[in-house]
Write a structure and sequence with these properties.
heterodimer, A: mainly alpha, MetI-like fold, 75% helix, B: alpha+beta, Rossmann fold, OB fold (Dihydrolipoamide Acetyltransferase, E2P), 2 domains, six-stranded mixed beta sheet, five-stranded antiparallel beta sheet, 27% helix, globular, binds adenosine-5'-triphosphate, binds magnesium ion
């Protein structure tokens, strides 16, 4: 498409932005890596001697580390499944012409604009509380034992709250993609004898593939660092049941004042994020250049 | 088999009646062309037959069976869309195989029909490409291939050639005509191009605002247009229609004569005369646009290619009297 001249002009013109972004990224990264090799605890100020790989060793052998890794992956995976499947469902519903579509669309989008801390608190106190919460009341009125969500199924509860917040994002992107599907293709498939489910499977889903890829990539980036919802609801507990990597880093650097160890965790998180990113790109990246 | 009958079919979108009650029969094996100006309801009529729109009232029969409430897939018709509507993420082979896959045709039968269609449509080299990697004409052929393999009772085409350039259009026109001769399947073809209609049709249906103005063979419509609308619509260049004293002299409210039925001659002795405006030289023929004839603003005349008049020359016009069409006050033909 582009000529040689226009390509080199394009490179020249985006270079200031690229340089700025690179610095923006490189400076904190280098500092984090540097701190991770120091014995640097805020409780013993002054000397910050070189520690070698010690911080990494202690961070990785910490008994909560394993839990944190699995919790992070379960959190990301669970939320992705719920939001993608749910998002496709909502998009299909909203795509149909119906009464009050405008209002319903705004209502569906709304959760995305609620701050994470606020939505987590609302869910914690208004819905999940076993005594005063709505779910607890419903259970009691049906004569059932109310579930203490954050004690019995803590990780699932967090997955649920975060999914509720990200569902609108997925819905919005998938709905836009769905609306860009050529109606004549669907009509042609209908004439070709495809049932609704075949049309969904062979026409709509392939058309949505790219949007689904975008949703998964963007959400993964944000979901690897879920934090506020955990802080205001479970504080990583009970035990380490809801401690993810981000929360573990917070615990080491800000609750135990160990900057060196926190940085080591940070570097570890960067590596984990990159591994996940490479996997995702491999798995679904080919959809993007189709 | 594919005899399609419409009985008192109407279609309204909300308050707007797009198709007033309409009766039409298309015989088995016939090539029927719906032609009319933009917005007259050609596509709507085709979509009603396909089942993509519900009729507001009336009945559609296919081979005598009431198909009014049948879903599109059950009517056994295949449609070729103006935008081709190919499935972009499937290869040409998969596109063509799709209807058979939906109908659960056995694999080797599928392959046999794909090979056959690909050979007939010159697509053999492209079977593994995606639609995005094909030219317009090739995409058109894939869309036709997808329709053929279903072995439908009738083919429906909605302006299939309007996205192609002029040369390709002529080529595809021939291919579709050829296909019709070979398959002898009913075809309904929508176009607003009256040349396509004239060259391809067994039967032309001229529509205006959802009404059928006339149904007949191309020559029937050309020789005996039932009213001024059909007279003006069929034929290229258009028939010259005029009112007033000259028409009265011929015993008609409106009279018409086709450009090819006027001979040019000496202005002094000719029946009519006028001033030459623009001359369009096609090589074989020349179309003269004549002004100041006392008939209408412009009279078009078709003359042999070697006849040469300059802009502003006086010119004489001799119509062939037996080829003059006469219409009454209502615009209907006077026999
Ligand atoms: N879904 C719809 N809702 C309301 N009006 C419609 C709808 N579809 C078509 N119409 C109207 O019906 C009339 C006939 O439309 P149709 O598409 O059949 O025209 P057409 O003869 O195919 O024209 P063209 O040659 O431009 O394709 C038009 O006036 C159009 O505005
Ligand atoms: Mg149309």
């Amino acid at each position: 498409m582009s000529t040689k001249a226009s390509r080199s002009a394009a490179r020249l013109m985006i270079s200031p932005a690229v340089v700025l972004l690179l610095m923006w990224m490189i400076v904190p990264l280098v500092m984090t890596v540097y701190f991770s090799f120091l014995r640097y605890n805020l409780l013993s100020p002054g000397a910050t001697p070189w520690a070698g790989w010690e911080n990494y060793y202690w961070f990785i052998t910490d008994p909560s580390f394993n839990d944190a890794i699995w919790n992070t992956l379960a959190l990301v995976g669970g939320i992705l499944v719920i939001t993608v499947v749910g998002g496709i469902g909502f998009a299909l519903l909203l795509d149909r012409p119906m009464f009050g579509t405008g209002v319903i669309r705004i209502m569906v989008i709304a959760p995305f604009f609620v701050m994470p801390t606020v939505s987590a608190l609302v869910w914690k106190n208004m819905f999940f509380n076993p005594v005063n919460g709505i779910f607890g009341n419903i259970a009691t009125s049906l004569g059932l034992q109310p579930i203490d969500f954050f004690a019995e199924i803590p990780l699932l509860s967090i997955i649920f709250i975060v999914s509720w917040m990200w569902l609108p994002f997925a819905t919005l992107i998938l709905l836009t993609a769905l609306q860009s599907l050529d109606q004549e293709q669907l009509e042609a498939a209908e004439m070709d004898g495809a049932s609704w489910s075949s049309r969904f499977w062979y026409i709509m889903l392939p058309h949505l593939a790219r949007a689904i890829t975008v949703v998964i990539l963007i959400q993964t980036i944000f979901l690897l660092s879920v934090f506020a919802e955990i802080l205001v609801t479970t504080n990583g507990g009970p035990g380490t049941a809801t401690t993810n990597l981000t929360y573990l880093i917070y615990v080491s650097s800000l609750l135990q004042f160990d900057v060196g160890m926190g940085s080591a965790g940070g570097v570890f998180a960067i590596i984990l994020a990159n591994i996940v990113a490479i996997f995702l790109m491999r798995m679904i990246g080919k959809n993007l250049d189709a | 088999m594919g005899r399609i009958t419409l009985e008192k079919v109407t279609k309204s979108f909300g308050e707007v009646e797009v198709i007033p009650p309409l009766d039409l029969t298309i015989e088995d094996g016939e090539f029927a062309v719906f032609v009319g100006p933009s917005g007259c309801g050609k596509s709507t009529l085709l979509r009603l037959i396909a089942g993509l729109e519900d009729t507001t009232s009336g009945h559609i029969r296919i081979d005598g069976e009431d198909a009014t409430d049948l879903p599109p897939a059950k009517r056994g018709l295949a449609m070729v869309f103006q935008s081709y509507a190919l499935y972009p993420h499937m290869s040409v082979r998969k596109n063509i195989a799709f209807p058979m896959k939906m109908a659960k045709v056995p694999e080797d039968e599928q392959n046999r029909r794909i090979e056959q269609a690909a050979k007939a449509l010159n697509l053999t080299d492209y079977l593994d490409r995606r639609p995005g990697q094909l030219s317009g004409g090739q995409r058109q052929r894939v869309a036709i291939g997808r329709a053929i393999v279903r072995e439908p009772a009738a083919f429906l085409f909605d302006e299939p050639l309007s996205n192609l350039d002029a040369a390709l259009r002529v080529g595809m026109r021939l291919e579709i005509s050829e296909l019709h001769k070979r398959l002898a399947t009913t075809m309904i073809y929508v176009t607003h191009d009256q040349v396509e209609a004239m060259t391809m049709a067994d039967k032309i249906v001229v529509l205006r605002a959802g009404n059928i103005e006339q149904v007949g063979s191309p020559l029937e419509l050309y020789k005996t247009p039932r009213n001024t609308f059909v007279a003006g619509f069929i034929g290229s260049p258009k028939m010259n229609l005029f009112e007033g004293a000259e028409a009265d002299k011929l015993g008609a409210h409106t009279a018409g004569v086709r450009p090819e039925h006027i001979e040019v001659g000496d202005p002094a002795s000719a029946y009519w005369s006028g001033t030459v405006g623009v001359a369009e030289h096609l090589g074989s023929d020349t179309f003269f646009h004549i002004h100041e004839t006392g008939l209408a603003d412009t009279i078009t005349v078709r003359a042999p290619g070697d006849v040469d008049y300059k802009h502003g020359d006086r010119i004489g016009l001799n119509p062939r009297m037996d080829m003059i069409h006469k219409f009454d006050q209502q615009g209907l033909r006077i026999q």
